[in-house]
Amino acid sequence: MSYEYIKVEREGPLMVITLNRPDRLNAMAPQMADEIGEAFYDLDGARAVLITGEGKGFCSGADLAARGDGGSKGGSHQALQNHYSPAITQLLRAPVPVICAVNGPAAGVGCSLALAADFTIASKKAYFLQAFVNIGLVPDGGSTWLLTRAIGRARATRMMMLGEKIGGEQAEDWGLIYKAVEPDALMDEARALAEKLANGPTLAIRTMKQNINLALDGTLPQVLINEAEGQRLAGASADAMEGGMAFLQKRKAEFKGQ
User: Fold this and answer.
1) Is residue 1 a part of any domain in this protein?
2) Measured between alpha carbons, how far is 106 from 53 in angstroms, rounded to an integer?
3) How far is CA 217 from CA 148, 177, 213, in A?
4) How far is it, in rounded angstroms, from Cα 229 to Cα 107?
5) What is the rounded CA–CA span in Å between residue 227 and residue 208?
6) Which residues contact 235 (CB under 8 A, 6 or more apart)?
7) What is residue 124's three-state secondary structure?
8) Cβ distance 233 to 205 under 8 Å?
9) How far is the C-alpha of 88 from the C-alpha of 243, rounded, in Å?
10) Are residues 162 and 217 in the same domain?
């Protein structure tokens, strides 16, 4: 499939998605959001997804000009419901681990996109921003949910109501992201992590992701039931058999994603 606003490449079991509007710091037009969703519908056997941005930015937020509504109430609501929210939902529900390499500004819905990943690695020169308060709007794209659960009410309130930039190192200190690294090491570290996950026990990792998401909103009894069912399914997989044999034979397991 061909795309206009993103690039999609396959590197063995790894899919790499690059937001590709560098002249606008990869501002997310509705079509870009749709293309991200389409890429996740068409994983075609990929066992992990790495997302980054072309050029100096990760994603500077929603492109109001491309949306064509100037941020009007009705247009904004429709754009969120029909384009941006489905893209974020795709990341959260993806059956494979998602890694975001944040190479520059991640603002607005770009911040949401980055934080919806299972692992977010950022350049120490990157930053995360919720600037809606500066234009009289409210955070969207799942930001309220993602931020509050990641860093707690006080810090989420600070980011949203004061519109402060949170740099890569501060984001790591807060537990907002997995790791902050030097800019020239970002893609090497992100790709190494993505490849490790892509070559891991796919069924087990998928079940872990489902159970982690359930743990955010579900009850302990629900989580216990899901853990037991997930263990039953994972335990019957070829990867579990390979993992057990590798442990007994004191060698590195070679998982096939089966």
Assistant:
1) no
2) 10
3) 13, 20, 7
4) 38
5) 8
6) none
7) coil
8) no
9) 33
10) no
Residue at 152 is within a domain: yes
Q: pLDDT digits over 218-236, tens only?
A: 888 888 888 888 888 888 8
Last residue of a domain, one of 198, 214, 239: 198
Expressed as residue numbers, the domain containing 127 is: 6-198
Give the DSSP H/E element, type plus range, for residue 179: strand 179-181
User: Do residues 74 and 175 share a domain?
Assistant: yes
Looking at the structure of the chain, the number of domains it has is 2
Instruction: Kindly report the CATH number assigned to the domain that includes residue 146.
Output: 3.90.226.10
Let me know: does 119 contact 178? Beta carbons within 8 Å: yes
Looking at the fold, whether 54 and 161 belong to one and the same domain comes out as yes
> 217 and 190 in one domain?
no
- Asked if residue 240 lies in contact with residue 234, where contact means CB atoms within 8 angstroms, the answer is yes
The answer for residues whose C-beta is within 8 angstroms of residue 40's C-beta and 6 or more apart is 49, 90, 91, 94
Q: What is the pLDDT of residues 164-219, one digit of tens each?
A: 999 999 999 999 999 999 999 999 999 999 999 999 999 999 999 999 988 888 88
- Integer Cα distance of 221 and 170 in angstroms: 35
